[in-house]
Amino acid sequence: MAELIHVHSAHVWTSRGAECEARIYGTKREDGTWAGWLEFHPVSDSGRLLRTGQETSQPNRAALEYWAGGLEPLYLEGAIARAEHQASREGHNVPQRSDAVGRAGAPTR
């Protein structure tokens, strides 16, 4: 099940100008390691949820929290661009929110 790890204080914007809040999620895998990814939630009701593929693999939750807390705004800008590109390849399907729906594993690229 996906767990919210960190909400970044810096907001980022999509290529269409929608302001988004960056949230880092993770899930514990069967081998005990953690997979992490980012989700970009629109600040307003307009816009769509964007999600990256797996961005990191960490040995435990504490390491994932440390990684998430160290992300700089420049990294977020690159991540939202990757998420937009992935969404365009997938035909603009809007993923379900990780904070509302549990899931077995992290998204794949």
Provide the fold topology.
Layout: E1 3-13, E2 19-28, E3 34-42, E4 50-51, E5 56-58, H1 61-69, H2 73-89
Antiparallel strand pairs: 1-2, 2-3, 3-4, 3-5
Explain what this protein looks like in three dimensions.
- With 109 residues, the protein is an alpha+beta fold.
- The protein has one domain.
- Helices cover 24% and strands 32% of the residues.
- Strands 1, 2, 3, 4 and 5 form a five-stranded antiparallel beta sheet that branches.
- A hairpin with a 7-residue loop joins strand 3 (34-42) and strand 4.
- The model is unreliable at 99-109 (pLDDT under 50).
Main attributes?
32% strand, 109 residues, globular, 2 helices, disordered C terminus, 5 strands, alpha+beta, five-stranded antiparallel sheet
Distance between the termini: 18 Å
Unreliable spans are 99-109
Tell me the overall shape. Answer: globular
DSSP strand count? 5
Counting H and I runs of at least 4 residues, what is the number of helices? 2
Query: What's the structural domain tally?
Result: 1
Mean pLDDT: 87
Helix content: 10-25%
Strand content: 25-35%
What is the radius of gyration?
A: 13 Å
- Helix-strand string: EEEEEHH
Largest beta-sheet characterization: 5 strands, antiparallel
SS-derived structural category? alpha+beta
Give the gist of this structure.
This protein is α+β, with helices and mostly antiparallel strands. Helix content is 24%, strand content 32%.
